[in-house]
Design brief:
The protein is α+β, with helices and mostly antiparallel strands. It has helices at 11-19, 22-25, 117-131, 161-167, 174-187, 196-207, 210-222, 239-246, 249-264, 299-320, 328-355, 372-403, 409-412, 417-437, 444-453; strands at 38-41, 48-55, 58-65, 72-73, 103-104, 139-143, 148-152, 159-160, 268-270, 279-281, 286-288, 295-297. The chain has a domain at 157-453: Aminoglycoside phosphotransferase (APH), C-terminal lobe (Aminoglycoside 3'-phosphotransferase, Chain: A, domain 2, Alpha-Beta Complex), CATH 3.90.1200.10. The structure holds adenosine-5'-diphosphate, 5-S-methyl-5-thio-alpha-D-ribofuranose and magnesium ion (3 copies).
């Protein structure tokens, strides 16, 4: 990594870097304020370093890729947010290894995680920030040589949404905010708004984020459907369930279609990893972070990631219920949020379309689709397809979180393995049936009813 000028910064060299970089130093007050800087590493993964940098005059976050992750002694493996980075030993054949594994090994050892992902993350953040500044942290500075970004510090009491969902906290504006973010970022980067030249320029630029896309292709669309040393599940409880996924021809047929769509369909500049761990929230604010998988892909992959992770949070609730809180009201809130997220998204997306129907968008030229009736038929067809894509991708993402490499804290934090397996089985069965039968759903209300029937 030394080549091409890259060097991983530690706290001392980061401090010197900040002092020498006006775009960062000025955010911290500049001058004498820089003497009061304190730096804290807060990253929760092994893929990137995330530093909070605070002075008496301000605060910023600095994120730098970790290129060659080291083998880190950790003691016994626990269910934690790090769990997606832990690999079971190959000979364990995919079963959850509950023994003390001496090391947490980073997936960076097994997949090519090019430093360039930082460039695509910063680029996507900037582009989405231009389109939806309310829900995207501002990028202050990006250094391509160091794969390092300075951005807005999303201050406490913001927390990662997934942690709020585990704790049972309601976010009354979440559906409104996320539908806003998805409608704006997806509509304005699609051919509904842009001409072909601009669109293809974008597609060409982000096509180079291919290694990140290949990681998704493998861990979402391939590994769960074959024997892979990376897969794991709550064994022995889900051994048969995992095997059933690998034996389900109807499911494999549907997943093949989704995989091709993920690779081929350059519909919009998507976030690419829009799960509830990529969203920071308070009661009144929603901020989307971490688009290092950003590329021109199918819109349904983002919408599905968000909805699918809410459904996982729903099924995890039974594992978090206790005498003090049966989580029943909370489960209702999650379902309402799923419903509102899609319905508001659909409404806002079509509103943007109507508002900009005279724009340069190449897909439906105004002189051809000029009759209101025709336009409304076209829109209905587009939204129905998008709904079914979202259900397909959302289900595929649920399945991979249960039998693939990367699990979610919602379920992992349920200590009792048999209880956890029950929640996981319900989620898995629900996801399989939605994935196979998604074309039968006409409304999100029907999906919510379906979710409840597996609970
Ligand atoms: P990774 O790609 O390694 O998952 P993330 O961008 O998700 O990195 O950041 C890891 C963690 O760092 C987040 O879960 C969050 O807790 C914290 N974090 C990241 N960006 C910010 C920010 N701009 N403000 C505050 N905290 C942040
Ligand atoms: C090896 S899979 C790691 C996962 O974490 C990221 O956030 C993505 O979801 C990826 O699939
Ligand atoms: Mg993380
Ligand atoms: Mg990330
Ligand atoms: Mg992250």
């Amino acid at each position: 990594e030394e080549e091409q000028g890259f060097r991983p910064l530690d706290e001392a060299s980061l401090l010197a870097y900040i002092k020498a970089t006006p775009a960062l130093a000025s955010r911290l007050g500049g001058g004498g304020s820089l003497d009061s800087i304190e730096i804290k590493e807060v990253g929760d993964g092994n893929l990137n370093f995330v530093y909070i940098v605070q002075s008496e005059a301000g605060a910023i976050v600095v994120k730098q890729v970790r290129v060659r992750p080291t083998l880190t002694p950790t003691g016994p493996l626990r269910s934690a947010s790090l769990s997606f980075l832990t690999l079971t030993a190959p000979r364990s054949g995919g079963k959850r290894n509950t023994q003390a594994l001496p090391y947490v090994r980073c997936v960076g050892d097994s997949w090519p995680m090019t430093r360039e992902r930082a460039y695509f993350e910063a680029s996507t953040l900037r582009e989405h920030g231009r389109l939806c500044p309310e829900h995207t942290p501002e990028v202050y500075h990006f250094d391509r040589t160091l794969s390092l970004m300075g951005m807005r510090y999303i201050e406490p009491p913001h927390i990662i949404l997934r942690k709020g969902l585990v704790a049972g906290v309601e976010y009354p504006l979440l559906a409104d905010h996320m539908s806003d973010y998805m409608a704006k970022t997806l509509f304005f980067t699609s051919l509904l708004y842009n001409n072909t030249t601009d669109h293809k320029n974008g597609v060409a630029k982000y096509s180079a984020n291919v290694e990140m896309c290949r990681l998704t292709e493998q861990v979402v669309f391939s590994d769960p459907y074959r024997v892979s040393k990376f897969n794991r599940w709550t064994s022995p409880y889900l051994d048969k369930d995992a095997e059933a996924v690998r034996e389900d021809d109807e499911l494999k047929l549907e997943v093949a279609g989704l995989k091709s769509m993920f690779i081929e369909r350059a519909q919009a500049l998507i976030h690419g990893d829009l799960h509830t761990g990529s969203i920071m929230v308070t009661e009144g604010s929603t901020q989307v972070i971490d688009p290092e998988f950003g590329f021109y892909g199918p819109m349904g992959f983002d919408i599905g990631a968000f909805l699918g992770n809410l459904i996982l949070a729903y099924y995890a609730q039974n594992g978090h219920a206790d005498q003090a809180n049966d989580r029943k009201a909370y489960k209702k809130w999650i379902l309402k949020t799923i419903e509102e997220s899609w319905n508001l998204f659909q409404k806002k997306f079509v509103e943007l379309w109507n508002k900009h129907k005279e724009s340069n968008g190449e897909a439906y030229l105004p002189d051809i689709y000029n009759k209101p009736k025709l336009l409304s038929v076209v829109q209905k067809k587009y939204m129905t397809n998008l709904f079914h894509d979202s259900l397909g991708f959302g289900s595929a993402k649920m399945i991979r979180r249960i039998v693939g490499i990367a699990h979610v804290e919602d379920l992992e934090s349920i200590k009792d393995a048999s209880k956890r397996a029950e929640c996981e089985r319900a989620a898995l069965n629900c996801a399989k049936t939605i994935l196979k039968g998604r074309h039968q759903f006409e409304t999100i209300e029907q999906v919510v009813e379906h979710i409840q029937s597996f609970d």
